[in-house]
């Protein structure tokens, strides 16, 4: 066999090998398969993959990740950021509790004044009905009118403060449960990402 023929056969073998290697390499692409170009994409058997780093893996390198895996990692990252954005729950609870105590105290004071005003209205009505002197009746009627207005104002204030107290109670309850709620969200998102990013899928 001449040298030219040998070189020709070797070249043919190399070219054939190059063409048969591509489908084999493509078929091997799955979660965790090494890649080199960040954000490069490819589709294998109808499944889409992106070249990226798996944030669940410490010091991870670029690997192919399925579209589902990439989405799950984004959701996990979002859950972690949301949890961090809550900040120091203890400090926020302390501030909220201070506002709550003020609102409760204000409601107690207004309620006392409201009950007192109503009692005075009842007393003034009785005095006015019992009086036989016209000028006295007119004075009691004027006082009664002012007391009635006071009752209306105090009633409105009482309603607003009651709503404020309930709102603060709801916020305290929500904030108190926040750490556990956000931890559960992070844990769920991480579990989903771990499942969808499992190597070989």
CATH topology of the domain at 89-191: Helix Hairpins
| Main sheet strand line-up | 1-2-3
The assigned CATH architecture of the domain at 89-191 is: Orthogonal Bundle
Strand content: 5-15%
Order of helices and strands: HEEEHHH
Q: Enumerate the spans where pLDDT stays under 50 for 5 or more consecutive residues.
A: 1-27
Helix count? 4
Q: What level of helicity do the residues show? A: over 70%
- Termini separation: 48 Å
- Overall pLDDT metric: 85
Estimated radius of gyration:
38 Å
SS-based structural class?
Answer: mainly alpha
Overall morphology? rod-shaped
> How many beta strands in the DSSP annotation?
3
CATH class of the domain at 89-191: Mainly Alpha
Summarize the biggest pleated sheet. 3 strands, antiparallel
């Amino acid at each position: 066999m001449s040298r030219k023929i040998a070189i020709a056969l070797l070249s043919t073998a190399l070219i054939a090998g190059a063409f048969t290697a591509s489908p084999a390499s493509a078929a091997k692409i799955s979660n965790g398969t090494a890649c080199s170009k960040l954000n490069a994409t490819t589709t294998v058997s109808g499944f889409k993959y992106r070249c990226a780093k798996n944030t669940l893996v410490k010091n991870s390198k670029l690997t192919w990740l399925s579209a589902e895996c990439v989405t799950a990692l984004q959701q996990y990252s979002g859950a972690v950021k949301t949890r961090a954005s809550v900040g120091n729950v203890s400090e926020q609870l302390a501030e909220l509790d201070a506002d709550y105590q003020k609102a409760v105290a204000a409601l107690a004071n207004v309620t006392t004044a409201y009950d007192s005003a109503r009692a005075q209205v009842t007393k003034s009505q009785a005095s006015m009905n019992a009086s036989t002197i016209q000028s006295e009746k007119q004075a009691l009627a004027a006082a009664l009118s002012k007391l009635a207005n006071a009752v209306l104002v105090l009633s409105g204030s009482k309603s607003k403060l009651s709503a404020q107290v309930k709102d603060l109670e709801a916020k305290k309850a929500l904030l108190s449960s926040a750490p556990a709620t956000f931890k559960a969200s992070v844990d769920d998102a991480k579990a989903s990402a771990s499942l969808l990013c499992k190597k070989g899928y």
